[in-house]
## 1
Amino acid sequence: MQHQISVITLGISDLPRSRRFYVEGFGWMPVFENEDIIFYQMNGFVLGTFEKSALEKDMNRSGLTSPGAFSLAHNVPSEAEVVSAINQLVEAGGRIIRPADAPPHGGFRGYVADPDDHAWEIAWNPDWPIDENGHVRFAI
């Protein structure tokens, strides 16, 4: 199989609140939306925010919980942009989980929870260059 992810879908409880976070916080514009789901075109995959009850029905599962034992990451091109991005996400309804600092493995990062408590790492790492299409390359 190819090394690729096509879609990442997050279960959320309030679609308009989630939309505000992703549109005003990250500046991402939906490519499709209805009363249950919003899709955002990313650089090589699609991010979906799906009303949790509709996602449970679609998956034929019940009792989905948040937050999960994972984080999503949004890398930025400079250390200074980490704090700026975190502040913008908080203004759009996010919550700081961990203030920005320098981890022992290098770079600079902080964590923000979206309105449904999904963790987003906002990070800069000089060893992970970002190309003109926004693709990050593990370069160590």
## 2
Amino acid sequence: MTETRTRRRQPEVTQQRLLEVAGELVGETGVAALTLEAVAKRAGVSKGGLLHHFPSKQALLAAMVGTMVERFARAADTVAAADADPRGRSARAYVRTAVSEPEAEVRRWAALSAAFMSDPSLLDGWRGRLKGFRDADRSECADPVDALVARLAADGLWFADVCGLYDIDAETRRRVADRLVALTRS
């Protein structure tokens, strides 16, 4: 890679590193304890360097949510692309992705949930993605209600994980997911 290309990519790499560090800190200590100083220190950049990319804690949180939403959507798109049955494929992919979120990602979502309550606009990107998912259900399913039920139930399972509401063993989780996937085939 040439020096010019390396310099152009540096801000992108720094920004990604700041988001990773912020995610780690949120998962460890929660949103309330997240400070720009702590993110900058752990990432090995000056606070001014962090502020260049994210001018406020709110901007950093919004970027974190956006990154997590995009990560989830890419994973669901990959699962959908591998599904040979076009009927309900997007809803099946959503269910499979939601029930297999890595534990670290679930912890980040859990920690960020407090931020969503104080600033619902942080979920605007997620709402947009959900609209796209629902549009896919309307085009893929004769009756998209079963796909919506599967999505809502997968969200409930995911929310239960985020809040630590149930102690669901792996076998039960698999059986629940299988039932939700079966709904997408009707």
## 3
Amino acid sequence: MLSPPKKIVIDTNVLVAALRSRSGWSFELLRQVGGDRFQHVLTVPLVMEYEDVQLRPGLVPLPEAAVHDVLDYLCATAIRQPVHFLWRPRLPDVKDDMVLEAAVNGQCACIVTWNVRDFAVASEFGLQVLDPKTFLNPSQGGWL
């Protein structure tokens, strides 16, 4: 019997990078969302953060409607996780605390971010923190 795919949380900076360029590890991760290699977890505060950042003028080269389509897809394919426990403040950036809370409450295995060093305390919760390239490449130490 196959084990279920591991659960992850995707940091906002990965989503920004994916929407800014179709060539790169962030876009590849986004392309695999909804597949069978991993499941991603979302909370309401994290979705609101995604939306706030992606809709900043000039940040991503997409029309607002396209950004909303991506966010709708992320919501449709995600495990929607209520936040039962707040773990704040644990990190220097309160926005990163939302990512950590989603991962801990969702019993995730990994946070995928380009700011790996910002999540040093994640190991206290048994979480791996990997950048998209490492996450997607077992030869790089990832687990997909």
## 4
Amino acid sequence: MTVQPYLFFNGRCEEAIAFYRTALDAEVQELMRFKDAPPDPTGKPVEGCAPPPGSEDKIMHCGLLIGGALVMASDGMSQGDATFQGFSLAVSVADEATARRYFHALAEGGQVQMPLGPTFFAKIFGVVADRFGVSWMILVPTA
């Protein structure tokens, strides 16, 4: 079994993809826009896949490889502001330089929730909410 995060950016997914490619060295594994979704056998859009008018170019589905983890993303139905609450995505890296680079890149336009520093469980650890409101925990394990 695999558990993978699926983030809905409600109209800002393309911006998020570009940001994570730069900030976290993410690689796009797959990308489909709403307009590219195949119809059902009757020729109608698949229920739940029809975008609001004017949103045909928005992202229906994207797979981003961040390190060894697949994070999926979408614009959803592009209604309202995206809110990300009650979770963080944890990124464990091998060295402090990489941790600092990722942390500071994610903090650009975002909000530091806990500055990077040594802890009893990690050589360095910090928490930052990025410009989209997604919370990230960046750490270098002690062992």
